[in-house]
Amino acid sequence: MEEKHSMSSNHEYFNALKVGIIGTGFGVKGHLQAFQYHPYTEVIALCGRNTAKLRAAGKEFGVDFLYTDYMELMSNPLIDIVCVVVPNHLHLSIIMEAARRGKHILCEKPMCVNIAEAKEIFALLDGSGAAFGMNYIWRYTPERWTIKQLIESGQIGNILSVNTSAYADFLTNPPPWNWQADAASGGGTVNAWGSHAVDTLFWWFGEIEEIYAVKSKNLTKRRDGAGVLRLSDTEDGFTFAGRFRSGAELGGQFNMVSNSANPNFLFEIRGSEGTLLLDRSNQIHLSDLRGREWHVALVNPPCVQGDWSFLKEDRLLPQFFNLAHHFVLSILEKSSFSPGLREGVKVQAILEAIHQSGEMKKAINPMQYYEETEI
Asked: In terms of CB atoms within 10 Å, which of 169, 210, 302, 331 comes out highest?
């Protein structure tokens, strides 16, 4: 493991917050490394059901406390921050327990399984004093951060339409059956992949007031680890159209059974004065109404000082690290964090609308799910 860098913008904060991570899959790949590298935090606890993976990660990253029951991790009084990195249907109970114990919470996307659970989380956490963050890491890439600045600068004028898409072969050769193939567990392309796109759209352009979606289910059965064929009732693709509250049009398509080796997102943003394009190579193209293209200088999200170039060895770690930094600062400096509690609920409402529209075959207003609850 790379040694923790001690250079920071405030030495008073060095190792100030202790972190416990629940989940030994993505929790180790992203969350654990981001917080362990960060100068203001120290990961002291890890929880997982797979004891072999748990012990291996604990040894590799020098984690002191290893648990197979998250309630035992919650009982550790040294822990300030709990990272929830487990299947979606388990989020609610863990978040509620962490909130009752006064822990700060960073939750893997999406917040939970449905809008009812999201509103339950909001009711308990709003005004509690505990920090809550959503791990929508793509907000913290230089490309999307730069586009946010360009949109807010008004350089392409009023936003008229937005289109987004992503295609991948993740399920062309299906992995063994797991919770991602089970709708009741919160699996499926909408929650797994669409949640990132929806959060980006919400962050850039605000609330969506109408959405119509069609979901596709091409892969209806998958074999589990024992080779038994099991039902897969989740969507492997979806298409949607809608309208932002601003009046701008919206369209998108996502599919996990496409013969595409490049799973990156594409965003095309048309304004009254020009066009912005984030292509599948993560290159930004800015052009005016005459088609003249302008150079775009990337803007990096503000981060702790130091040499973090080694993080680029993993394509996900830089944005994990940037998001972790902003979340930690919000706790230490008692400031707001984005994406936070309200944003998590509103993105969950849009995901709910996509699911409901796909089932009911009619347009849905996501705002109906939270307008009357002052979220």
From this structure: 331
